[in-house]
Amino acid sequence: MRAIRVVPWLFGLSLLVLFAALAPEAAEQCADRGKLDVLYCDEDGDQVADPPKDSKKLVNPDTLIFAYVPVEDPAVYTATFGDLMRHLEKATGKKVQFFGPQNYAAQIEAMRSGRLHVTGYSTGSVPFAVNLAGAVPFAVMADDAGGGSGYHLIVITQASNTKINSVADLKGKRVAHVSQTSNSGHQAPVYFFSRLGVVPGRDYQIAFTGKHDNSILGVVTGDYDAAAVADTVLQRMVNRGLVKKTDYKVVYTSPVFPRAGFAYAHNLDPKLAEKIKEAFFTFRIEGSSVGKEFKDVTRFASVSYKKDWDAVVGIQEANGVAYTKESPDYKKLSKPPSKGE
Known about the structure:
By secondary structure, the chain is of the alpha/beta class.
């Protein structure tokens, strides 16, 4: 069995400098683009970028670059998505390489510049990827019963911490958040907690960690009093033995949100895009390398960005987020994650 090749880390380190120079900045002429960047059009009103009108702008690369959410150690996901990438190779006739993005901005910039073709974006970064990178979300992980396609924001603290038992108890504490565009790691906490009378950044100190696993491990080690994270990430860390259920307790659980959204670049040849979608929807997660990591799902289910991300976009816009490269929320995503930040 041929090993899946990995794009060198130097590629990731150079993204934010190199891609700005390479990205085609010519505005796409169209009747309507909605909230999308000037590079894209949305004339059918589905809130995602239409394929380029000029067929010369369509791409059909010999090698597809695949990535996943920069949540944990990228080396873990190289092996995790090995079976899926091999399935993609068979379905498309293309070689597939894995790219481990250092942060959310690097992942978004990679697709915007044409260096990333298929990827799984975190829930909160999907709207940025759609509007700034021409990402077209098409799938999420799910189970055969139709569930498993969502997750919750949870707040955890040390199991032995008797002083924190609710959101109200976070006042005056140091709480780990992930990054400005992370849904469960920042946007949703700001939205929900403020409505419970606790304003993050005012009523408690926010410590941005860059990744969910940094936040979780920081709580376990006592670096933070609590953390706002995705319950699915915590469960995977428990499954791998990185943390124990006796290490923490959950003091808040939100309504359900869509999981990470898998998307392809809007300028892929439509026939290739269809092959990619078919590959995902015919891939059986259960029993594969993907299933070993994501034990609560069995398959990929189709999604509509306009419908399934409506609540996420609503929360972000209520928090004042703007989907531009100049927005403070987006600029902060280019900083390398730091556990102590």
